[in-house]
Design brief:
The chain is built from 7 helices and 14 strands. It has 287 residues and is an alpha/beta fold. Strands 6-5-4-3-1-14 form a 6-stranded mixed beta sheet. A 6-stranded mixed beta sheet has the order 7-8-9-10-12-13, covered by helices on one side. The protein has a two-stranded parallel sheet with strand order 2-11. A hairpin with a 5-residue loop joins strand 4 and strand 5.
Length: 287
């Protein structure tokens, strides 16, 4: 199957009082997306930090080390949504606890048949490392789906050309990039790098970020986000490489049709053939 309709969610963060409120909002987006006939849905990085705003008995926000306590409920929710609506869901990222006590910021892929795959974020920002005691993942995977091979690279990951080149060498045609940025500087770093990685590797990038505000949760009080589906810059695609994009900081979905077959066409005989023309004699390869 070469055609795929994808949806990216500009998830609006707002303080909540229960997991049920979080589940209601997530279901709203998935149900809305299903009405457009999508096969894959992307949620943003760190969108489950909304659960921290539920707070403790004193009304203070929960701390980041409490977020893994919601992991089982989060997985059960998105497994059920993927099955009910027969879609693949990249459930943004959720903070999970490892056996050794370390915290990983982990993207989850939920298949309609109940399978769940994971990819921990590989590059830690200073805030993740120093304020939230996050540890990086230790390996890159790609994932086979009925519509092609995908990778999940989270926010800061997309700013490192090598890791996206590795994903393409492993067969990925679509990179899902959940993101969370608090200002325009961070947003545009991620956005411009998504375009660069699409050109370099002749892949699609599906990206989105959080919008809104968690007034009680440290480091989540400001969000600047916009979803987009980004293509290589060549004749079969839009000149600017933008299949679709949202309205910055609005609560909304964006939807686009992508065709993996077109990627194979431009890799073979496009205006430029950046993947084929790599000088691996000079700078190595990861295949």
């Amino acid at each position: 199957m070469s055609g795929l309709r994808v949806c990216a969610v500009q998830y609006k963060l707002a303080d909540i009082e229960s997991f049920d409120q979080f589940a209601f909002q997530a279901r709203h987006y998935v149900r809305n997306a299903s009405e457009y006939g999508v096969q894959a849905i992307l949620f943003p990085e760190f969108f489950t930090t909304q659960l921290l705003s539920i707070g403790d008995e004193a009304g203070a926000a929960l701390t980041i080390d409490k977020l893994p306590e919601f992991t089982d409920a989060y997985i059960a929710l998105f497994q059920s949504l993927a099955a009910e609506y027969r879609v693949h869901i990249v459930g943004g990222t959720h903070v999970v606890a490892l056996a050794d006590g370390k915290l990983n910021n982990t993207a989850h892929l939920f298949y309609p048949d109940g399978r769940v795959e994971k990819q921990a974020k590989l590059h830690m920002t200073p805030t993740e490392r120093e304020e939230w005691n996050m540890s990086p993942g230790d390996g890159l995977q790609v994932f086979d789906t009925e519509f092609g091979t995908i990778a999940m690279l989270t926010c800061y990951d997309i700013e490192f050309p090598e890791i996206v080149r590795m994903a393409r060498a492993k067969g990925a045609d679509i990179i899902f990039c959940p993101s969370c940025t608090d200002d325009r500087h961070g947003f545009y770093r991620v956005r411009y790098c998504c375009h660069a990685r699409a050109v370099e590797n002749q892949v699609y990038i599906v990206t989105t970020g959080t919008v809104g505000s968690l007034r009680k949760v440290d480091f989540m009080r400001a969000n600047y986000g916009q979803a987009a589906v980004i293509s290589p810059n060549d004749i079969p695609f839009p000149p600017a490489g933008i299949m679709t994009e949202g309205v910055i900081n609005d609560d909304m979905l964006v939807v686009a049709d992508v065709n993996v077959g077109l990627l194979h066409d431009v890799r073979a005989a496009g205006s430029v053939t950046t993947w084929r023309d790599r000088r691996v004699d000079l700078y190595g390869d990861w295949s």
